[in-house]
Amino acid sequence: MRVLVLGGTVFVSWAVAEEALRRGHEVVCAARGTSGQVPAGARLVRVDRDDPAGLAPLAGERFDAVVDVAKMSYPWVRDALAALGAGAGHWTFVSTINVYADEATKGLDARAALREPLTAEGGEQTPENYGAIKVASEEAVRDAVGDRAFVVRPGLITGPKDDSDRFGYWPGRMARGGQVLVPDAAEQLVQYVDVRDLAAWIVDAAEQRLVGDFDAVCPAQRLGDLLAGIAELAAPAGTELVPVSPEVLTANGVQPWGGPRSLPLWLPAEYHGIAAREVSASLAAGLRPRPLDEVVSGALGRERELGLDRERRAGLSRAAEAEVLAAARA
Ligand SMILES: NC(=O)c1ccc[n+]([C@@H]2O[C@H](COP(=O)([O-])OP(=O)(O)OC[C@H]3O[C@@H](n4cnc5c(N)ncnc54)[C@H](OP(=O)(O)O)[C@@H]3O)[C@@H](O)[C@H]2O)c1
Fold this sequence. Notes:
The structure is a single chain. With 330 residues, the protein is α/β, with parallel strands linked by helices. It folds into two domains: 153 residues, Rossmann fold (3-Layer(aba) Sandwich), CATH 3.40.50; 111 residues, no CATH class. 34% of the residues lie in helices and 17% in strands. The protein has a seven-stranded parallel sheet, sandwiched between helices. A two-stranded parallel ribbon has the order 7-10. The chain has a two-stranded parallel sheet with strand order 8-13. α1 links the parallel β1 and β2. α2 runs parallel beside α3. The longest helix is centred in the middle third of the chain and has 16 residues. The relative contact order is 0.14. Bound molecules: NADP nicotinamide-adenine-dinucleotide phosphate. The site of NADP nicotinamide-adenine-dinucleotide phosphate has 24 residues, from α1. One of its GO terms (molecular function) is aldehyde dehydrogenase (NAD+) activity. It comes from Kutzneria albida DSM 43870. This is NAD-dependent epimerase/dehydratase domain-containing protein.
């Protein structure tokens, strides 16, 4: 196949380009080329999607498959469809689990109701508008190329080249051993996807012309089981997991999910649905989540590459963890 990846210089789009190359496909990546390098063997076409005519360097090209990872821009998606949709054999749009209107109810699947769409003309590109802009983008894809479109909605993505510091916090923290602060929320459900499994599924979908809307996460599991499993794989002997109640965490300024001074994967009840999706349709359609040991070694490899004691975008510093543990004991 001749595959166009809109992106290809970082994380998800880099992994898709690499997987397509590994299978012998011809890969063109279209990006500014400022965030990183495309995988060896891919051709980089320099484009700037902030310019409405930015895709002109691709004019007249035809692709068997196009993969768009536009994070938060409806105009980027609309303009790409206008420029390339007619000549594309298959179109993947990487959306997000945050498109759903109901984020609290557990066990919903990809047929659940979506948020109201928000085009960039109708609102700012802020984290609060992320899901609604993705809904508008998905709708543009379905309107233009719905007969050829694979709309894939990942939850938390981990693996090589992840720079969000979220899933990786846990393998990185467990590897340091000692007393590890964990949220006392063992029953909360959690889901994630390894970027390599997501990329493999996207390339499978293009090869097989898979069409439809799907969530891309592994089956839900208890947070307590996941953290115990990561500890078993990554922690030295003598490591102790110390559960601290959500009330004490909140009172000590610890945020759920992400950002500074946070405990990744921990979610307040109003978001429990986004990490407890029913994914049997995705598994039946070819998503193959790898075993936890491979997920953890991928995340730990990335953590070590970045430095276990770096200043983090998500998680607790050593000092913050010690402070909260002391407050919990008091
Ligand atoms: N991380 C998660 O846990 C998570 C969860 C759910 C969904 N997602 C979705 O997964 C996707 C992540 O994609 P990704 O990892 O490939 O990364 P990304 O950070 O979304 O970047 C994608 C590509 O866009 C290119 N780009 C940025 N600005 C550009 C511009 N003005 N013109 C042309 N290209 C531009 C970048 O290359 P250059 O900068 O070199 O141009 C990069 O290759 C997003 O759609 C996100 O919403 C992520």
